[in-house]
């Protein structure tokens, strides 16, 4: 069986953002399921890249004006030319199955019109995610919301199977599109933790990990303003693009916050941090950074959104903080108690529920019936 994996971004080169890490995870599971040489990739990228064996890159770097023209034309994030290039590639290689990584490829799915051979993976229910951004005051998202609704509805109509990250997204899928997920596949991480990395080399700082993304910026801004004055910890901010926070008004005269920005290796920061903070109050799907912190055995102070989709009842060190007072009280209690930088129970939870290889069997079962599908593509 040959599978075509349609996605966005250079997920093979770097997984330094949550979305890219999840895309690579999906690609890895497909390779483990049908065979490495049976997975073809069509990836839309914003920087020109040379094609590789079984990997086709389509360059599509849009201006702000171009992006909104596409929204008006009912395309969510890609141009008409790019859509046609993807369709042409599908006709060229005639895959046995198309795996749409993301739920707004609906125009392409409609043109191919081969529902029996198609699977979609929902990173979020994009209709809800985009609407939430509109409600937060981002009125420029109104056009995108309109395009997203059209594309996502088509996507659901022209696929045989749907995969969601969690029950919240599954419930939204049922509410908006009267479909139910065929598989719940939560965020997972390929285990890169190494024995010995739990050595007690703790420094007294709290770690915030996240790329320069609206939900992350809003969250850390809120934390610095509302929580930091009441706790006795320094904070380090690490993530792609976060160096742009330097000089921001909310960080002026705040000496206990160090903005580091993008790094090649997060492991030393996880290793030394006393704990991880996740004040995330908007978004969809699941947070990759949560699985990464679990892998590293870190105590977490996080919002409901940060823990969405994760099961952790009874695990000490995973602190659900609903508001300012909850963050302050939990962190101060942690500070005065004897603590280490590594929690074995949290690490065990990761291995049992959120390590990628644990889900290979479930992906096999999803594809079992697909191997008998007859391929038929018509222009």
Structure description:
42% of the residues are buried. This protein has 2 domains: 204 residues, Glycogen Phosphorylase B (Rossmann fold), CATH 3.40.50; 149 residues, Rossmann fold (3-Layer(aba) Sandwich), CATH 3.40.50.2000. About 1% of the residues have low confidence. The two termini are 22 Å apart. The strands form 2 sheets. The protein has a 7-stranded parallel β-sheet with strand order 3-2-1-4-5-6-7, sandwiched between helices. A 6-stranded parallel β-sheet has the order 10-9-8-11-12-13, sandwiched between helices. 39% of the residues lie in helices and 15% in strands. Helix 5 runs antiparallel to helix 6.
Output mean pLDDT. 90
The strands making up the biggest β-sheet line up spatially as 3-2-1-4-5-6-7
Level-1 CATH class name of the largest domain = Alpha Beta
CATH architecture of the largest domain: 3-Layer(aba) Sandwich
Low-confidence stretches: 372-376
What's the order of the H and E elements? EHEEHHEHEHHEHEEHEEHEHEHEHHH
Q: Look at the helices and sheets and give the structural class.
A: alpha/beta
Q: What do we call the CATH homologous superfamily of the largest domain?
A: Glycogen Phosphorylase B
What general form does the structure show?
globular
**What portion of residues is helical?**
25-40%
The number of distinct helices, counting runs of at least 4 residues, comes to 14
Q: Rounded to an integer, what's the Rg over CA atoms?
A: 21 Å
């Amino acid at each position: 069986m040959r599978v075509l994996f349609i996605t966005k971004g250079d997920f093979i080169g770097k997984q330094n953002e949550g979305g890219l890490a999840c895309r690579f995870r999906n690609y890895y599971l497909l390779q483990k399921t049908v065979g490495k040489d049976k997975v073809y990739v069509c990836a839309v990228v914003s920087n020109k890249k040379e094609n590789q064996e079984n990997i086709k890159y389509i360059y599509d770097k849009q201006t702000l004006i171009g992006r909104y023209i596409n929204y008006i034309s009912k395309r969510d994030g890609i141009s008409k030319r790019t859509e046609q290039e993807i369709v042409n590639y599908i006709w060229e290689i005639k895959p046995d199955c198309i795996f749409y990584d993301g739920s707004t490829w609906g125009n392409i799915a409609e043109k191919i019109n081969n529902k029996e051979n198609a699977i979609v993976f929902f990173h979020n229910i994009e209709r809800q995610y985009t609407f939430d951004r509109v409600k937060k005051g981002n009125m420029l998202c109104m056009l995108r919301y309109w395009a997203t609704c059209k594309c996502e509805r088509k996507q659901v109509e022209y696929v045989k199977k749907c995969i969601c990250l969690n029950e919240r997204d599954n419930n939204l899928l049922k509410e908006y599109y009267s479909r139910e997920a065929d598989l719940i596949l939560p965020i997972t991480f390929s285990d890169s933790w190494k024995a010995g990395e739990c050595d007690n080399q703790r420094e007294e700082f709290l770690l915030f990990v996240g790329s320069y993304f609206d939900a992350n910026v809003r969250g850390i801004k809120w934390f610095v303003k509302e929580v930091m004055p009441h706790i006795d910890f320094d904070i380090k901010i690490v993530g792609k693009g976060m160096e742009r926070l330097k000089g921001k008004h909310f960080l002026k005269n705040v000496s206990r916050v160090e903005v580091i920005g993008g790094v090649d290796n997060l492991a030393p920061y996880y290793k030394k941090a006393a704990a991880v903070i996740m004040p995330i109050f908007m978004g969809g799907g699941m947070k990759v950074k949560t699985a990464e912190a679990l892998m590293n055995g870190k105590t977490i102070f996080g919002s409901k959104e940060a823990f969405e989709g994760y099961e952790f009842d009874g695990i000490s060190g995973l602190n659900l903080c609903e508001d300012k007072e909850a963050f302050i009280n939990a962190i101060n209690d942690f500070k005065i108690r004897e603590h280490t930088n590594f929690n074995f129970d949290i690490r065990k939870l990761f291995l049992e529920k959120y390590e990628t290889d644990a889900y290979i069997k479930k992906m096999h079962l999803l594809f079992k019936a697909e191997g008998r599908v007859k391929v038929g593509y018509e222009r």
